[in-house]
Sequence to fold (149 residues):
Amino acid sequence: MTAFNFSQVHKKELIDFKLPLVGDDGKPSFLIIAPATEDNPEYYKEIIELSSTRTFRDLATGDITEDKEKAGRDKDKQLYAKHVVKGWRNIQDTDGNDVPFSYENVLELLNVIDLQVSKGVFTQLRMVASRYENFLSKDALDTEEMVKN
Fold:
């Protein structure tokens, strides 16, 4: 078997996801996220286990209802709170105090954003977390440098 040399890994474990929220100090709020891909084994294992029991099966049969779509979205928020969102910055309560990071608080934040801001925020979070290239460093994405080599 050939031994390949991968001495330079151009991958980031975590990235910032900017929320459309601003704290009392005027600074933006961020979620610190891990990938929602095979590179996050805990997330990937759980999503594979779910694939046989929920929306994926319903898609094949055309049996998607509004209730099933909501249940699937709610389960996705639980999975993201458990496996994808690893921290946050500048998340404050209504009194301007920093909110402690916890699974319960992440899930509550995702639900509040869905209800009070826009469902598009969680949709965008899913899109960003599921794209491998978002977790590559700029060096890895430098096509000019890649062409030289």
Notes: The helical segments are 41-51, 55-61, 66-84, 103-117, 119-129, 138-141, 143-148. The CA atoms of residues 41 and 56 lie 20 Å apart. The chain has a mean pLDDT of 84.
